[in-house]
Every structure is written in structure tokens, then in C-alpha cells.
Design goal:
Shape: elongated
CATH class of one domain: Alpha Beta
Helix content: 40-55%
Strand content: 5-15%
CATH superfamily of one domain: Beta Polymerase, domain 2
Low-confidence stretches: none
Number of helices: 22
Bound molecules: adenosine-5'-triphosphate, magnesium ion
Largest sheet: 8 strands, mixed
Number of strands: 12
Distance between the termini: 67 Å
Length: 401
């Protein structure tokens, strides 16, 4: 089928349109074949918003990128071993990629690359729906579709290109989940079987490479669907040794995310880790180098669990509640509470909403002014004073708790 590139250009921002027009002219003038490939073609055909743009160049992409950077005031980053260059401007970017082929000397290891033509470049890709290409040319252009990805797009199928695909690169397992969840697609039956056979190879893949994909999966808008798929396909069990993503966990996540969508990674990670033994949760959190605030919350989780019995008593005063809960991150309290008895949820809400925001009246400076020598007893004195203050607050506001 022939496509008019102008309709691709029309959906792009004016800045990107200018650059792509220039690229079409420059490629034509220098007789250098350039192609839109991968996600941008897939998403455009699906009439979804087009994200980052990848352009494969049959030739030296870095040389072309340098010409680009001399014309446009964009930032240029090159990656010579792979012959790729990224051009960035304002809030957008475009990758220029020298067409390459890849060969996997060992399963789950990084590939050896060599420069090649578009056909070889498309043959190294993950799924049929991601090996579609459109030549950037000044006239209607044919959809290049060697793997029948267009048919799979229409049928909503994720299909690998060959039987060793997941074993060569097990991160494709996570990519398959991500695309299935995002696009509401299914695995083509043979691909589903191959994915199951390749699961053990996830253990041979470095945490950094796994996280490149896992991190994306957990931060996409469709992360909860992805987690349910990952659970039912045995991927969570393979990655974390146990645990999972039950319907009730999913419900908890939905409720928490409704109010705090900006904390998605922390929320889903804490819920995932809540299914593991504390030491396993900490090991996994370190293995994937989660950001420090999330690491701290995972470390605090067992201490909070240990307070469950104490919190079940509704006899705690406001001061006692504050003293017990103040060491914990508010988000951790909310995530943990989301699966607790109503009485505990109620106390945590009361603490977070009313007690935690109250500033202590007595400060270290006041103690100094009273001539009390500075020392470890300051901490005790200030804590006792705060406890009294909050108890008084509770007596004055009995209807809040
Ligand atoms: P997204 O919309 O999430 O960016 P995308 O398809 O553009 O989706 P990218 O991760 O940006 O995905 O990768 C760009 C292209 O590179 C993909 O479309 C795919 O063809 C190829 N690709 C990326 N990762 C792999 C991989 N692990 N194995 C094979 N091909 C890959
Ligand atoms: Mg992309």
C-alpha cells in the first residue's frame, strides 16, 4: 500500500515537521536512503500518538547527524559502537540509526553488530509490528513490511520473528508484556509457547538490562494490566522467585494510584515487594537499583508490619500514634494501610491528615533558652513535649479521630 508522508508529517509538531522535511530533501540530494521505522510507524498506523522517532539510515548515520547538527541548533549525542546518533531539541528527540545486523554469540548476552542494509536491520527486531518501515522520500511511499507486521497490527497480535528471539534477548519477554498491555494485543499462540520456554533465560540477563525494560513497564499508564499479564505468564515468579499480582493487589494499586499517579513506581514496587519475604524484597530492590527513597521504604516495611498488633488496639492516644508512625514515610504508610483492617486505615488517615502536619511548639532552641545543656536528652524531651502537645490537640478536637 502507498502512503503519503505528508499525513505522517501533519501529526508531528511544527519543529519536527521542519526537520523531517529537511531530512527528506537531504536524503534525496545525497541519495542516502532513510526510513522511519519501529514504534513511530506502528503507532501512526494505529492512529495512536506517535512518541519518539527512529530513522534508519542505509549508510553512516553519525555523519548525517553531524550535517544535521550544523544546520539545526539541536543537541547531538553519538554512540559510535552502534553507529547511532540522537538529536534532541526542546522536549523531543529523534534517533538516527545506521542500518545494522546483530548476531548473538550467546543467549542473553549483548549482540555483536555489523553495518548492513534495511532488510537486515528489520530482521534483528523484536516483533513483527515493530519491523515496519516507511522510506523518507518526496513522493508517496510504500510500507515496507517484510514480516507481515501490518496484518498482525490489524489482528492485535504480538509475534516474534523467529524461534530463538526470546532466548537471544530475554528482555523481549518484558517488551512483549508491555506492548500487549499498552495496545491490548495478544501473544500469537506460537510466540506464547516460545515465551514460556525462554522464561529461565531471564535469570541469565543482567539486572541493568532487565531494568531498562522493567522500569518502563512499571511506569507506563498500562502498568497494572502489564503486571497482571506478567503474573499469569509466570514472569513475576521467574523474576522474583515468588510473589505475584493478585486481583486484590491490583485493586489496592488502582485505589492508591487514583490519588497519587505521580508515585506510580513507588506504589507498584512496594505492593510487588509486599508479596515477598522482607529479605527477598530488599535483595530485589537492591538488585534493580531502585531509587533511594523507594529502597528506604522497602527497608522500613517490616518495622511497620511489626506494629500491626499495636495499631490494632484503638486505645493509642494521638501522641502515641504520632510517636509510633513519625519515622515512616507517608507514602509507605498509605500503601501498607491500603491492605489493613478498617480501624488501622482510620488511624493512619487520622495521623497523616491531622497529626503529622502539626509543627512542634517546643524546639531545641527553646530548651537552649531555658539553659538545658545540649545532649541526647534533647531528643527525649522534645518527643515527650510533642506527645503531650498532640494529646492536647486530640482533647481539643475529639471529633477528628
Ligand atoms: P515505545 O513506544 O515504547 O518507544 P518502540 O517500539 O519505539 O516503543 P523502543 O524501545 O523505543 O520501542 O525501540 C525502538 C525500536 O527498536 C523498536 O520498535 C524495535 O524495533 C527495536 N527494539 C528495541 N528493543 C529491542 C530489542 N530488545 N530487540 C529487538 N528490537 C528491539
Ligand atoms: Mg520508541
Amino acid at each position: 500500500m502507498l502512503y503519503d508522508l505528508n499525513s505522517f508529517l501533519r501529526q508531528a509538531s511544527p519543529v519536527l515537521q521542519q526537520r523531517l522535511q529537511w531530512l527528506i530533501q537531504t536524503a534525496n540530494t545525497h541519495n542516502c536512503a532513510c526510513y522511519l521505522v519501529g514504534g513511530c510507524v506502528r503507532d501512526w498506523l494505529l492512529e495512536r500518538p506517535v512518541g519518539d522517532i527512529d530513522v534508519v539510515v542505509e549508510g553512516d548515520a553519525i555523519a548525517l547527524a553531524k550535517v544535521w547538527a550544523a544546520v539545526w541548533p539541536d543537541q547531538l549525542h553519538t554512540h559510535p559502537p552502534f553507529g547511532t546518533a540522537t538529536l534532541s531539541w526542546q522536549d523531543s528527540s529523534l534517533d538516527l540509526i545506521s542500518a545494522r545486523s546483530e548476531y548473538y554469540p550467546q543467549p542473553a548476552a549483548l549482540p555483536v553488530v555489523s553495518f548492513a542494509n534495511l532488510a537486515a536491520d528489520l530482521a534483528r527486531r523484536d516483533f513483527t509490528i515493530n519491523c515496519l518501515a516507511l522510506r523518507l522520500i518526496n513522493q508517496p511511499t510504500e510500507l515496507i513490511d517484510p514480516q507481515h507486521g501490518y496484518a498482525d497490527l490489524q489482528h492485535g497480535l504480538i509475534r516474534v520473528l523467529h524461534d530463538l528471539s526470546f532466548i537471544n534477548d530475554p528482555t523481549r519477554i518484558l517488551r512483549a508484556i508491555r506492548f500487549a498491555a499498552r495496545l491490548n494485543f495478544e501473544l500469537e499462540p506460537q510466540t506464547a509457547i516460545l515465551l514460556q520456554h525462554a522464561l529461565p533465560w531471564l535469570d541469565q540477563t543482567t539486572p541493568a538490562r532487565l531494568w531498562n525494560e522493567l522500569g518502563l513497564l512499571l511506569t507506563e499508564p498500562s502498568a497494572l494490566v502489564a503486571l497482571s499479564l506478567a503474573d499469569s505468564w509466570g514472569v513475576l515468579n521467574q523474576l522474583f522467585g515468588s510473589g505475584g499480582w493478585s486481583a486484590s493487589l491490583n485493586q489496592q494499586a488502582q485505589t492508591l494510584l487514583a490519588n497519587q499517579s505521580d508515585q506510580q513506581l513507588a506504589i507498584v514496587w512496594l505492593l510487588l515487594m509486599s508479596q515477598l519475604a522482607p529479605s527477598a524484597a530488599q535483595t530485589q530492590t537492591q538488585r534493580f537499583s531502585l531509587p533511594k527513597p523507594i529502597r528506604l521504604m522497602v527497608e522500613q516495611w517490616p518495622q511497620l508490619v511489626a506494629f500491626e498488633a499495636t495499631l490494632s488496639q484503638t486505645t493509642l492516644s494521638a501522641g502515641q500514634l504520632d510517636r509510633l508512625l513519625s519515622p515512616f514515610e507517608p507514602l509507605l504508610l498509605e500503601v501498607w494501610a491500603s491492605n489493613q483492617a478498617t480501624s488501622i486505615q482510620h488511624q493512619i488517615k487520622y495521623y497523616l491528615q491531622y497529626l503529622r502536619p502539626i509543627a512542634s511548639i517546643l524546639t531545641g532552641r527553646d530548651l537552649q533558652a531555658q539553659g538545658i545543656p545540649a545532649g541526647p536528652n534533647y531528643k527525649t524531651l522534645l518527643a515527650e513535649a510533642r506527645e503531650r502537645q498532640l494529646d492536647q490537640f486530640e482533647q481539643a478536637n475529639p471529633n477528628l479521630c
